[in-house]
């Protein structure tokens, strides 16, 4: 399949959805809404919302039925980037090739924009237009857990606590699975839930999401060492400067690449019981370790 064309189509659909579902940029207070839109529409791969839509498709559902949930994931992801970039955390000046939110709107403005996107995500998700409201509640619960203290935020907390320290491999794996993997896993599961997946389908997609989520973060670690700032749209080499626990720093570059490839194989194997409707998920798994940004 033409993955580039598929991703472009899904990105366009998500951007249209976000424009329709999010508070308008010109609504009062304009400074807050400008900051939200500035970061949300700064570009990016829209990978998490695309996974929501692709997962729904893989179980035979209309991807439009999962668009609200997909947009909610992008709001959560963008809020996390805004807060990650703050001086108190990663202190980054660039994101997606332009100044970070706090560089343009100030630290207070960036904090509030992130807070507003986080809460907007659940308002948008709650408006999912399907008859099975139980599935909507399940998806919202999945999203909340993946973004919270036992998911993404928990991983970020341990990541910060581990800076400049030698950490054992289980701690490294915890950071990666929770900081990045949980939200990717939840995106896959939520698309399946909204799409009405059978238990066996959901189990296979869960295995896929677990493997793909960890592979994505390992690939990010590798790109921070080998990628260019021009391609990445942000400064590279920051992990080493900050003494962050990464796969290359703990197990070496070659073993990291090997582990990422193994995880992609596991993701593909998890989809062995699915037909061609899951081909986008298969292509995304391969893309995760071949991307340059």
Q: CATH superfamily assignment?
A: Farnesyl Diphosphate Synthase
Note the overall shape. Answer: globular
Number of helical stretches of at least 4 residues: 14
CATH class: Mainly Alpha
The main β sheet shows up as: 2 strands, antiparallel
Compute the separation of the termini in Å.
21 Å
Number of strands: 2
Q: In sequence order, what are the helices and strands, one letter per element?
A: HHHHEEHHHHHHHHHH
Summed up, the domain count is 1
Question: Could you characterize the architecture of this molecule?
Answer:
The protein has one domain (3-290): Farnesyl Diphosphate Synthase. It has 293 residues and is mainly α. The relative contact order is 0.13. The chain contains 14 helices and two strands, in the order ααααββαααααααααα. 71% of the residues lie in helices and 1% in strands.
Give the gist of this structure:
This protein has 293 residues and is mostly helical. The protein has 14 helices and two strands. It is 71% helix and 1% strand.
């Amino acid at each position: 399949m033409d993955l580039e064309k598929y991703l472009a189509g899904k990105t366009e659909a998500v951007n249209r959805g976000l424009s329709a579902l999010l508070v308008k940029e010109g609504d009062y207070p304009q400074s807050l809404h400008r900051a939200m839109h500035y970061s949300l529409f700064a570009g990016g791969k829209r990978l998490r919302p695309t996974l929501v839509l692709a997962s729904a498709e893989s179980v035979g559902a209309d991807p439009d039925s999962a668009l609200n949930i997909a947009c909610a994931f992008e709001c959560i992801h963008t809020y996390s980037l805004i807060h990650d970039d703050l001086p108190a955390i990663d202190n980054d000046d660039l994101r997606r090739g332009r100044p970070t939110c706090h560089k343009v709107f100030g630290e207070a403005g960036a904090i509030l924009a992130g807070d507003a996107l986080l809460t907007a995500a659940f308002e948008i998700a709650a408006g999912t237009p399907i008859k099975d409201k139980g599935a909507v509640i399940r998806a919202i619960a999945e999203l909340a857990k993946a973004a919270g203290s036992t998911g993404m935020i928990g991983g970020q907390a341990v990541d910060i606590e581990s800076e400049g320290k030698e950490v054992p491999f289980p701690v490294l794996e915890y950071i990666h699975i929770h900081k990045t993997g949980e939200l990717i896993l939840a995106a896959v599961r939520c698309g399946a839930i909204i799409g009405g997946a059978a238990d066996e389908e959901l189990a296979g997609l869960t295995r896929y999401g677990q493997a793909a989520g960890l592979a994505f973060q390992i690939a990010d670690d590798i790109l921070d060492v080998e990628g260019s700032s021009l391609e990445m749209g942000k400064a590279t080499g920051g992990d080493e400067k900050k003494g962050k626990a990464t796969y290359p720093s703990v197990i070496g570059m070659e073993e990291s690449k090997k582990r990422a490839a193994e995880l992609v194989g596991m993701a593909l194997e998890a989809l062995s019981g699915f037909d061609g409707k899951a081909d986008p998920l298969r292509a995304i798994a391969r893309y995760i370790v071949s991307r340059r940004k």
